[in-house]
Each structure stands twice: as structure tokens, then as C-alpha cells.
Amino acid sequence: MGTDEMAATLTASRGIPAVHFTTVGAAHRSFVHHSYISWNDDFPFPELYLQDNEKRSLDNLMKFLYEDVFNGDKDVLFVNFRLSSTIVLLKTSKGLEGKYIDYLSSITKKRILGVGSLVADADQAEDENSEILQWLSKKEPNSTVYISFGSENFLLNQEIEEIAKGLELIEGVNFVWMIRFPIMEKTMSIEEVLPQGFLDRVKDNGLVVSGWAPQVNIL
User: Fold this and answer.
1) pLDDT above 80 (res 204)
2) What CA–CA distance (Å, rounded) separates 177 from 146?
3) Three-class SS of residue 158?
4) DSSP 3-state assignment of 138?
């Protein structure tokens, strides 16, 4: 039993309602619940689907989690939904994922409330000397593309190379590209994974950064 489950179970035993909050969006949650918990007919939103090889990979992952990590407990994926009193809070909004919120509510029998993106106000004073922001200040408004795949996604070298090739084909568009490496590859440099000479060829319109960046201020 995880910490969240223990807290929810304890509060329920004392008559105190527990409300689950998840940072995962409604589309993902409804798709996973439908595929591995509900076992209903086809997912009602055909634009969201997995290729056969993706489905096999996910099935293998779920099988591993169920059998080797959670000791056969198939309730583990949504146990916090079940233990949440009558509502579940999601980091999303009706305007963005309305149909998925409604569907997730119908299959979990919980009222799903979107609480928005929860983006904190930018700390202008802290970031005003950022090299990235100084670079951006020299560009025209709405002329720059920000490229980031999040803090937990790491591109393969081949994927990085393909993105780099695409960026070189774009004319008249500036870009800030965030590249992150797994912890075990922290010593790897940007130059090692980009096509030879890429940084020199895009130096006037592109900035490639590894590590942390003031994302809110950039956006």
C-alpha cells in the first residue's frame, strides 16, 4: 500500500473525507481506465488509440506491474480514485478536456473537477539575468518556437537528430530547444547528440539548452 492509500484509508476509518488530486490529464486517465479496468466496448473517442506495437508494449508493462511490483493487485492503478470520497481533482480543465472528464466521471462513478493548469506566477526578478531571456529579448514577438518534452521524457539520439534536421529546414523562425538527458547520462554534452556543425549553422536563430530553464518566463 502506498503513502496516498494509507492516508486515505486512515482518514476514512476516522470519518474524515479524503480527496484525491492527480496531475495526470483526463484523456490519459480515461483511456487507461477503459483499457485496463472497465473492459467495456471500444473507447468512445477514436482519435485516441494505440498502434498494435504500442498496445503490446503497454500490455507487457501492465503485466509486469501487476505481477512483479504490485503482487497481482489490479486495483492499484485507480485505488486512489476509489478511496477518494465523492470527487477527484485533476490538473486540467473542462475547456481543454471536457469530454474526457465527463467520460472518466461516468466510468469511475466520481465527480471529476478540473482545477486548471496550476502554473505559478513567473519570478521575473530571479530570471531577469537568464541567458535564455536575454537571447529572447532580441527577437521579435511571436517569432520563436519553444521545444520541450518535459522533465521526465528523454529523446533517443536518432529522434534528436531528426528534430535537428527539421529545424534546419525552417526559415524565418527562431527556436529555443530544451534537451534533457537521463541521470546516468549527465556527462553527455549537447554537441555529442546533435548533427555535426548544427549549433554553428543555427546560431543566429536557434538556442539549444541542456538542464534547467525559466519555462514560465519563456512562455
Assistant:
1) yes
2) 6
3) helix
4) coil
Spatial strand order of the sheet with 20-22 comes to: 20-22, 87-90, 111-114
Section 120-136 average pLDDT: 67
Question: Does residue 2 have a pLDDT over 50?
Answer: no
> Given a cut of 90, is residue 50 above it in pLDDT?
no
The sign of the CA dihedral 85, 89, 94, 97 is negative
Q: Which residues contact 37 (CB under 8 A, 6 or more apart)?
A: 74, 77, 78, 107
Q: How many whole angstroms from its chain centre is CA 130?
A: 25
Q: Please list the helix, strand and coil fractions of the chain in percent, rounded to the nearest 5, in that order.
A: 45, 10, 40
Residues with Cβ within 8 Å of 165's Cβ and at least 6 positions away in sequence, in order, are 195
- Chain segment 56-91, per-residue pLDDT in tens: 888 888 788 777 776 666 666 777 888 888 899 999
Instruction: Give the integer Cα–Cα distance in Å for 87 and 89.
Output: 7
- Taking the C-alpha atoms of residue 1 and residue 76, their distance in angstroms, rounded to an integer, is 9
CA distance 181 to 161: 14
Split at pLDDT 50, 70, 90, the class of 1 is very low
